[in-house]
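Lab intake sheet, docking and co-folding queue.

SAMPLE TYPE: protein with bound small molecule
LIGAND NAME: zinc ion
LIGAND FORMAT: SMILES
REQUESTED OUTPUT: full 3D complex as structure tokens
PRIORITY: normal
SUBMITTED BY: R.K., bench team

The fields below were copied directly from the construct record.
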Amino acid sequence: MYKIPLSELKEKIIASGQISATEIDGRIKAKINELSGLISEEGAAHIIANELGITLVPQGGAKLKIKEIYAGMRNVTMVGKVVRLFEMREFSKGESVGKVQLLLLGDETGTLRVVFWNDQVDEIKNVKEDDIISLKDVYVKENNGNKEVHFGDRASIEINPEGETITSVRKSTSYERKSIKDLHGGEENTEIMGTVVQVFDPRFFTVCPECNKRVTEDQCATHGAVKPSFSYVMNTVIDDGTGNIRVVFWKNQTNHLLAKTEEQIVEYKDNAVSFEDVKTELLGEQFKLLGRVQKNDMFARLEFHAQIVEKADPEEELVRLEKE
Ligand SMILES: [Zn+2]
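RESULT FIELD (auto-filled):
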């Protein structure tokens, strides 16, 4: 069963013209009673749709818009624009090291996350934000209330396919805004908004140009001798009035924070003095940050790992305050 929200199930049934908006709740209740209450409202709505011959999702390998994609679907074909490229993360699994990378894909109807594991990560090593990606035969899971696309054996990806364009992206917000004082570590998909009160120098390190893993002395564990490229990480302290937290920005997020390109940032590697101006400019700026909260045991502090960095929008914040 696809994980279609109840409100959308109802809309689809009403749109078929077979049950009116005033009747729908009664019909769902009747179906639940008929099945001795052993079914959810969603389940009942699914059965009703099925009995009435209503197609809930487009059939037959059609290219789907993001709002037509639900958790539980398999063999999905879709096209989207890379809205955000998250950092590749490595993790150890027994003896071996695995890697995982996420990107946020968007179209005119919404956004969703796409997850790449291990060798799949290599397929997107040259992907940039604003690239168009076409996915075929992927499947969709739910993770913390978000739709997440994964690759099965038959899945394939095409980067910037001929003739595909995405004109605009509808941003969906599935992140929960929290006050910094309420963070305690382990939160995923969390949003904070605050002011930069301290900026640290970026740290640069060398990575393999093939697989993006860290290299020492120009030797990649997988690719042997390589000409390494540079990556970087930067920390700031953000204060939202309830407290402050150290925020970690990996490469792509640093680019967004500073509104600079990779080439421009790498130039600061040998020119720390000129970075002082960048720091001064950043102090007092307000940002909306989406990411996860992690306990850093070594330093006994909380860290916010930024996954999406946006300049705070005063109008949006005003609307939010009025709602509260
Ligand atoms: Zn390598």
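REVIEWER NOTE: Helices lie at 6-15, 24-34, 41-51, 119-123, 251-258, 262-266, 272-282, 314-323.
SIGN-OFF: pending second check by T.M.
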